[in-house]
Amino acid sequence: xxxAVADTLPHAGRMLLLDDILVCTPDSLSARLSVRxxxxxxxxEDSLPAWVGLEYMAQAVAAWAGQRELTRGRQxxxxxxxxxxxxxxxxxxxxxxxxxxxxIHKVLEDSTGVGVFDCEVRAPGLVQxxxxxxxxxxxxxxxxxxxxxxx
Length: 151
Description:
Elements: H1 5-8, E1 20-24, E2 28-34, E3 47-49, H2 52-71, E4 80-89, E5 93-95, E6 99-109, E7 114-123, E8 126-135, H3 140-148
Antiparallel strand pairs: 1-2, 2-6, 3-5, 4-8, 6-7, 7-8
């Protein structure tokens, strides 16, 4: 089932960073995007810091989760980025206009909605990799509200 990126993510406007989903399977997703200036992020005139690749990876994980929800006949819902580890990049900055492919693969997922994903961003001369840990509770807003009452 081919689905538009905007239908799989709880993002909108200039913060919708993925341009196209190339392939989505039960355990993986690959997408394409072009590096562009983003509101609120430090950018020189011609590049973004390499760590923006982590957001590309996180949006690919969110698009995978959104596609899965749509396949199950459910609405797309927001999740939470719990953390990353082992981020590596062959470039310190990402040139604006560079066409990238981001790929994620689910390593594990537990019954509470926590998942771990191996992620890569690739382009000529660029390889980025990281592990992303994400959480998608049934109701993220109730989860966050309950968390505020714990302390």
